[in-house]
Amino acid sequence: MKLDYKIFKGKIFIAGLAIIIVTNIVALAGVAYNRSGEPDAVVELTERELGLPYRYGMNKENTGLGLRINCRIEDAQRYFYGNTNCWSNPSWLNKEKLIELGFQLQLQGDKTAGRLAFEKELPREVFLVLQYDGAAHQRVVSSAEEELGEQQALLANNPGQEEFEKRVEDAAKKLNNEQHHNSRLFAIDAGLDRARLRNTYPDTSQYILMQALIRPTWSRDENEEEWKGTITGLLIGTINIPLEHRALFEPLEAAQLRRNQNRQTPRYTVRVAFGKRAEPWVITVGKL
Predict the structure, then answer these.
(1) What is the mean pLDDT of the chain?
(2) I need a surface site. Which of 28, 71, 183, 211 has the fewest CB within 10 A?
(3) pTM (predicted TM-score)
(4) Per the domain annotation, does 51 fall within a domain?
(5) Does residue 20 form part of some domain?
């Protein structure tokens, strides 16, 4: 029986179209479920926590805009975002916490066995607790203040010495960045039970629960073994800005290209809600 190419091609087109329609229906149903009922949290963030994408404004063909969620830990200066290679190792993510998160950690007799053991441990999805403008950020600011005071005291004992003047200058910049520029969103805890975490952190204007990937790392120093957890990234690393709010960001395009030359204070706020699936969406945006 000879196959009619036009009929076959038409069936392929219909099947492809059906897949697209079903996929869109499933996606829209997920969005509707996530936004149904009362939000799990509503937080007003700024450019410090929601940064413009790198090279924003250079691609005029791309009309989409997703703001990067800038998260931190107290133990390091670097940030982590979505599922990227910018990893973080908080001190609270120790062996006991990893076991609590379901990892099977076994003592190993040698370095090779230990390496093989943790390589078999696949990353796990967990709920990450993000604290906004709370105690974690205040501790970082206080630490920067103490460092500046220490460097000023050293300069007072070594007046006119360029090395100590530079230390004071660097410490002052660090404090200024913590007070006015750096993200105030810190990862402080993780768990598998979302309801339990929310009971532990009930303030929905300060604590956000988002899904993230965590994996264990292992090291051995002489006869001592150490397990640490690594946050490899948020499952959702950006927040999409709806078209109706896009106009506020258009004048920032040219400024974004010069961002590294002159660090600016935040220029916008974004009120964000987090729903039943721990997925964020934008409620309003505003100019600062």
Answers:
(1) 80
(2) 28
(3) 0.82
(4) yes
(5) no
